[in-house]
Write a structure and sequence with these properties.
363 residues, alpha/beta, Rossmann fold, Elongation Factor Tu (Ef-tu), domain 3, 6-stranded antiparallel beta sheet, 25% strand, globular, binds flavin-adenine dinucleotide, binds adenosine-2'-5'-diphosphate
Length: 363
């Protein structure tokens, strides 16, 4: 090769990274413009966003969104699910409760790779059998109710909290396909599991964060995982994470007998009275000030002052999980509660969302 040709070739090769980098930048720009998920991820894993401390307000603070890039997702997909084995399946309800809600644990130890997850994620379940068209059933998502260490702290189980769906149609009782399959399943049986999925409900890393939790029914599942991570002695020993903030659980259930994991939460409260508040709304036993059913949004209003003092702290996160129908009621209550403190919820909520402090998973 002549000298001049070699020089041109070397020069050309030397430009390749520059050209790739240039196209990479263009691609990144386009993706961030067009794909909100990608855009969100790139915010998630890198930059500090400038934001106001409260909606009204004054000092400008730099809040770093947490880096969730290492959180596992989709280790097992619907086309290639993991076959977990049911370890235990028991009722969480007391005598006189309405309906059926079970705690179900699956053994994951045969997984290769092992299905790993963190608190706040969900898994998918594919019920056995076929639908009315002879096709395999579709996947259903369930919030994980255990910590990453599992209920036995060995790191190879996952637990769910499942309510059996039942409704009346044309005088007939219809049972939900997957929830009935799960509530009926016996230890030793194999279940198709996918995931984990979801980064919306993850806990912050800060040991001194404040965590406000608003749950109805099985919406308690991720909160049970958070509270175990914070307050269960075995879990604390395992997780090397020493929660020092304030946790406040608002739990909605129709009857006292329907409260889920209540003894555990009461025992955490007794042991850590400065760190945990536990407020219940028992809709069919207690009345709100208007004489209607007591819902968690009525409790939010009762505690508006204290709640919003907490929310003004940039280390406070709010988690909402359970019935989709509770969202308008919660929004209305937050609106009223905010205005009683001179704050504008319509501005504050998007602000909290932007800061990664407002977490919602309803279904
Ligand atoms: P299906 O057989 O799928 O029946 C549901 C269908 O029945 C509905 O789509 C609707 O068409 C119909 N239907 C329902 N109610 C009525 C009614 N009153 N009248 C007429 N038709 C009706 N569930 C839990 O129990 N625990 C959890 O932790 C949990 N976590 C979830 C997390 C996420 C992110 C999501 C998206 C959902 C979660 N769910 C959870 C709900 C769960 O995924 C299922 O939707 C639920 O178990 C019902 O599934 P199924 O197969 O039993 O019901
Ligand atoms: P209710 O059913 O008495 O109206 P579960 O899943 O075990 O049934 O619990 C759900 C809880 O959430 C119940 O206490 C239920 O009350 C309550 N609930 C129902 N609708 C709403 C709503 N729109 N906002 C808040 N809570 C609600």
């Amino acid at each position: 090769m002549a000298y001049s040709e070699a020089t041109v070739l070397a020069g050309g090769l030397a430009h390749i990274p520059v050209v790739i980098g240039f196209f990479g930048l263009i691609q990144k720009f386009i993706l961030n413009k067009t794909n909100p998920k990608t855009a969100e991820k790139s915010i998630d894993s890198s930059v500090n966003i400038k934001t106001n401390e409260s909606a009204q307000s004054t000092p400008t603070k730099t809040i770093k969104k947490p880096d969730h890039s290492k959180v596992p997702v989709n280790t097992y997909r619907p086309k290639n699910p993991f076959l977990g084995t049911v370890k235990e399946n028991y009722s969480l309800l007391k005598k006189g409760a309405i309906g059926r809600v079970n705690h179900i644990t699956f053994d994951l130890s045969q997984g290769d790779p092992l299905l790993k997850y963190v608190e706040g994620q969900s898994i998918g379940i594919i019920p056995a059998g076929e639908d009315s068209k002879g096709k395999p059933h579709k996947i259903r998502l369930y919030s994980i109710a255990s910590t990453r260490h599992g209920d036995d702290f060995k790191g190879n189980t996952v637990s769910l909290c499942v309510r059996q769906l039942q409704y009346e149609k044309d005088g007939e009782t219809i049972d939900g396909v997957c929830s009935t399959y799960l509530c009926d399943i016996a230890p030793g049986e194999k279940v198709k599991i996918t995931g984990p999925v979801g980064k919306e409900m993850l806990l912050p890393e800060d040991e001194d964060a404040n965590i406000i939790m608003l749950a109805t029914g099985t919406g308690i599942a991720p909160m049970r995982a958070y509270l175990r991570r914070m307050f269960d002695p075995n879990e604390i020993e395992k997780n090397n994470w020493n929660f020092k903030g304030k946790a406040w659980l608002f739990m909605g259930a129709p009857k006292t007998a329907n409260l889920l994991y209540d003894e555990d939460f009461e025992s955490y409260k007794a042991k850590f009275p400065k760190n945990l508040k536990y407020t219940k709304a028992i809709s069919r036993e207690q009345k709100n000030p208007k004489g209607g059913r007591m819902y968690i949004q009525d409790r939010v209003l009762e505690h508006a002052d204290e709640l919003f003092s907490l929310i003004e702290n940039p280390k406070t996160h709010i988690y909402l999980c359970g019935l989709k129908g509770m969202e308008p009621g919660i929004d209305e209550a937050m609106n009223k509660a905010a205005s009683s403190k001179g704050l504008d919820w319509s501005k504050l909520r998007p602000q909290l969302k932007k800061e990664g402090r407002w977490h919602v998973e309803t279904y």
